[in-house]
Design a protein that fits this description.
Elements lengths: L1 H28 L8 E2 L5 E5 L4 E3 L3 E2 L6 E5 L5 E4 L2 E2 L6 E4 L8 E4 L8 E7 L6 E9 L10 E4 L3 E3 L4 E7 L9 E5 L2 E2 L8 E7 L6 E7 L8 E7 L4 E9 L5 H22 L2 H29 L1
Parallel strand pairs: 2-11, 13-20
Antiparallel strand pairs: 1-4, 3-9, 5-6, 5-10, 6-7, 8-9, 10-11, 12-14, 14-18, 15-16, 15-19, 17-18, 19-20
């Protein structure tokens, strides 16, 4: 009888332990195997530059049939519920592309007005919220780099060749080609006229180079040369053709004038030459006259 009582007591304790385990499981997971959703660890402070795309992360496990709601803390209405957007600002969207844990709020082309606190909520009676702060700042100043550069001589002698080089770069890709202009008129390659345009791309720097060559320059080649890339970047260069070589007739005429000048200057430099010649002639005549006078006097005696 005593053993039977002990056996019943053991059965009772065993059943009670099963009951307590069941109640504890139900209280933790809920009825029908329901488990409360929970947030995975993600960043809670996001900083982006004005004009860029902001991604506010929110990852949830065990979401089940519940919905994810995005709201601004300073606004009552929801921005999104699930993948549906309830704001008139078309820059907002929800990134749930992997159909998994990720429910990120995406804001394109952000402005400083988008800065603030955002809540990622789960539609449960429990208060399940993850708060994220979005900061929007001005982008740092970018050092201005010239996308196109032209180089070459500024002066050349008439008849000498002219060679001007233009190179162009780009932010994402280099231009496809470049055009040349002289005093506003577009230049075309003309081998017969001695105008050659060559383009090539550097294999390492990816710069596009264009070289304009004029085989024999003339006075009409003086002016402003402009290089324009297919991305509409422009640079200019001024060239002056000098007429420094004189013709043969000019040399002959100048030489004749120089000789004449030298002859005249020789007379001007020696004014006494003419006077001394006259004095010699006068002295000669006076000597002859004196000799004739002496002869006559001696004959009269």
């Amino acid at each position: 009888m005593k053993k039977r009582v002990e056996y019943k007591s053991w059965i009772k304790n065993y059943l009670l332990s099963i009951l307590f385990t069941f109640v504890f499981s139900v209280s933790a997971a809920g009825w029908n195997g329901y488990i409360l959703p929970s947030f995975k660890e993600t960043r809670t402070n996001i900083t982006v530059y004005v004009g860029k795309t902001a991604v506010l992360p929110c990852s949830i496990v065990n979401l089940g049939t519940k919905k994810v709601i995005w709201k601004r803390v300073d606004q009552k209405h929801a921005l999104t519920i699930g993948e549906f957007v309830f704001t008139t600002d078309e820059r907002h969207s929800v990134d749930h592309s992997d159909k998994g844990y990720k429910w990120n709020l995406v804001i394109k082309d952000v402005t400083k007005a988008h800065a603030g606190l955002y809540d990622c909520q789960i539609s449960t009676k429990e208060d399940l919220v993850r708060r994220i702060r979005l900061s929007v700042t001005d982008p740092p100043p970018v050092e201005e780099t010239k996308a196109i550069h032209i180089s070459g001589p500024n002066f050349t002698e008439k008849g000498e060749p002219i060679r001007i080089t233009c190179n162009a770069t780009g932010d994402s890709m280099t231009p496809e080609h470049m055009d040349w202009f002289h005093n506003g008129l577009k230049l075309q390659q003309n081998i017969d006229a001695g105008v050659l345009i060559t383009e090539f791309r550097h294999s390492e720097t990816k710069k596009l180079y264009s070289v304009l060559e004029i085989a024999k320059s003339s006075m009409k080649d003086t002016g402003v040369y402009i290089c324009r890339s297919s991305k509409k970047d422009v640079d200019s260069h001024h060239v002056v053709v000098l007429n420094g070589k004189l013709t043969d007739s000019s040399h002959d005429k100048r030489g004749f004038q120089d000789k004449k000048t030298v002859v005249n200057s020789s007379h001007l430099d020696n004014p006494g030459n003419s006077a001394s010649s006259v004095n010699r002639r006068v002295h000669y005549l006076m000597s002859n006259c004196l000799l004739l006078l002496v002869t006559i006097l001696a004959h009269n005696r």
